[in-house]
Amino acid sequence: EVRLVESGGGLVQAGGSLKLSCAASGFTFGDYIIAWLRQAPGKEREAVVCVSSSDNSTYYPDSVKGRFTVSSDNGKNTVYLQMNNLKPEDTGVYYCKIASTWGQGTQVTVSP
Question: Which of 77, 75, 64, 74 is nearest to 18 (CA)?
């Protein structure tokens, strides 16, 4: 069974940092698109980073560029999202997605 499990969410004050983890089981990282997405209440889900594992090309939207960084540990089959200088508008449920598989999400709440 292919599974993704996110962790690391929580409550943080504006300006703080969090590091999310996405542990993959049931498959090995390969030539996939890896993405972190978020969904805020009342808003559509949006991607905050997309990575092509074939060439490591990475996309960050302007809203998070310079503050969020994606990384991975292939030996642990884990993808990370380091989030710095968090803002209240970063609040939402964060999901990782590898190929067509989604995780269950982890809540990130940033207080003013």
Answer: 64
pLDDT in tens, 59-89: 999 999 999 999 988 888 899 999 999 999 9
Contact at 8 Å (CB) between 59 and 69? Answer: no
Going by C-alpha positions, the residue among 75, 18, 13, 3 that lies closest to residue 48 is 18
* Closest to 42 measured CA to CA, from 111, 93, 108, 100: 93
Burial 38-62 (b: 16+ CB within 10 A, else e): beeeeeeeeebbbbebeeeeeebee
Place of tokens 């200088």: 85
